[in-house]
Amino acid sequence: MTNTKLDITVRELTRDYINNDNEGVRAYNNQLDVRPPYQREYKYEGKAQEMVIDTILKGMPLQQMYWAKDEEGNLSVLDGQQRTISICDFTKSKFSITWNEDTHYFHSLPTDLQELINNYEIEINLVEGTQTELLKWFERINIAGVALKDQELKNAMYVGTWLHSAKQYFSKRDCPVHLDYKDYLKGSAIDQDYLEQAIKWINKGDITEYMAKHQHDKDAQPLYDYIERVFTWVKHIFPTYHKDMKGQDWGNLYNEYSHITTPFTDEQLNTLRVDEEVTKHRGIYPYLVTGDPKTLSLRAFSKRDITKYTAEHGTKCNICKEEEATQADHIEPWSRGGATIYDNLQMLCRKCNGTKSDN
Q1: Beta-strand pair 18-20/24-27
Q2: pLDDT for res 111
Q3: Residue 304 near residue 345, CB atoms below 8 Å
Q4: Is the pTM higher than 0.85?
Q5: Pairwise CA distance, residues 296 & 281, whole Å
Q6: How far is 203 from 2, CA to CA, in rounded Å?
Q7: Which tens digit of pLDDT belongs to each residue from 21-64?
Q8: CA proximity to 54, closest of 27, 76, 83
């Protein structure tokens, strides 16, 4: 690998700049791929964009950028995508800044300030090597800066037709998954959270295996179709949306319980919401689907009640009468109306509590 220092002006950088989904993001006489497949989505907006332009107008240095040059002579941005797009977008008047207390797009700035920006020099470190070497560099410089998330690093590993298609469905600001299901998913599209979650659900948590297998598929339609099935099912069994439905483990619930087709009513949800024994309302949805009360984090007996019980009844298990009692348990189960009160307390050993049935 070799490194070469370059100084280029903003005028040179922004020449022939394009930014669209069909042609990608290119600059520098159309020679520079600003957003190669391994790069994260554009995140700068508002103050972050303004800070880049403010730095240039004040003649202060921007942090060094890294470009890559592969074996075929193609140029791409290794580090500096966010700053590059901010600069290019501003010179195309795609956003405004506040300068001397006035709002300005590039075209409305005085001519001398436009020239100041166009003549500003940016320091580039040009790295040349094989694709494997360049990806290693990309990973290293992002660890030193703002570290890439796991899914972003996996995207860098499995570049191909499938990934390009998957990003259109899962990773753009206004992608279909964001528009239709953002209220059910945690994280964001541009941080790759939706894509990561979808792959985990469809492939039992193994992202690497799935991406390696499908790297050269013509598109990611099957993954999108899967997500469509998941949330069609969710919306059917829970017809009324509530805020705490966001971020639930919907895919894994669907994988195991998609045979459930009878919708749950608001009355069923509200009964659990007002139950003082239920301490985790987010657990109501998986409880209704699975029937497992552990998801509800039912109210526990207090240390005072446990101490009192032990003093009155001894330390042996209330069922087998032999082993030491270490776990507090309801005599009358919560599922049959038993409350977490002293009169409904018994102490059991781990074995008896594990085999005890609520029936």
Answers
A1: antiparallel
A2: 95
A3: no
A4: no
A5: 7
A6: 40
A7: 666 899 999 999 998 765 556 565 678 889 999 999 999 988 88
A8: 83
* C-alpha span between 55 and 87 (Å, rounded): 11
Question: What are the CA-CA distances from residue 355 to residues 29, 316, 319, 326 (Å)?
Answer: 72, 17, 11, 15
Neighbours of 150 (CB within 10 A): 12
CA–CA gap between residue 281 and residue 297 (Å, rounded): 9
Q: Which residues partner with 244 through β-bridges?
A: none
Q: Which stretches within the chain are classed as H helix?
A: 10-14, 47-57, 81-91, 111-119, 131-144, 150-157, 161-170, 176-181, 193-202, 207-214, 221-237, 250-257, 266-273, 284-290, 303-313, 350-355
| The two structure tokens encoding residue 187 | 């994280």
3-state secondary structure of 172: coil
Q: Residues in the chain, how many? A: 359
For CA atoms 344, 345, 348, 353, the dihedral sign is positive
For the segment 67-107, what is each residue's pLDDT rounded down to a tens digit? Answer: 888 888 889 888 888 899 999 999 999 999 998 889 999 99
The total of other beta-carbon atoms located within 10 Å of residue 9's CB is 14
Instruction: For residue 174, give the 3-state DSSP assignment.
Output: coil
Q: Give the CB-side neighbour count of residue 148, counting CA atoms within 13 A.
A: 23
Half-sphere exposure of 40 (CA within 13 A, CB side): 25
For residues 74 and 285, what is the distance between their CA atoms, to the nearest angstrom? 51
Question: What are the residue boundaries of the structural domains of the chain, listed by start?
Answer: 1-148, 237-296, 303-355
Q: Report the SS3 class of residue 204.
A: coil
CA 265 vs. chain centroid, Å, equals 30
| Residue 183: partners with Cβ closer than 8 Å, 6 or more residues away | 241, 245, 246
Reference 177, options 158, 195, 160; nearest CA is 195
From its phi and psi, is residue 59 left (phi > 0), alpha (psi between -120 and 50) or beta? Answer: left
